[in-house]
Amino acid sequence: MEVIATQLPGVVIIRPEVFGDSRGYFFESFSVRRYDSLTGKEGFVQDNESKSCRGVVRGLHYQKGAFAQAKLVRVVQGCVRDVAVDLRVGSPSFGKSVAVDLSGENHLQLYIPRGFAHGFSVLSETAVFQYKCDNYYEPSAEAGIAWNDPDLGIDWGLDTDSAILSPKDTARPRLKDVPVEELFIY
Question: In the annotation, is 118 catalytic?
Answer without folding.
Answer: no
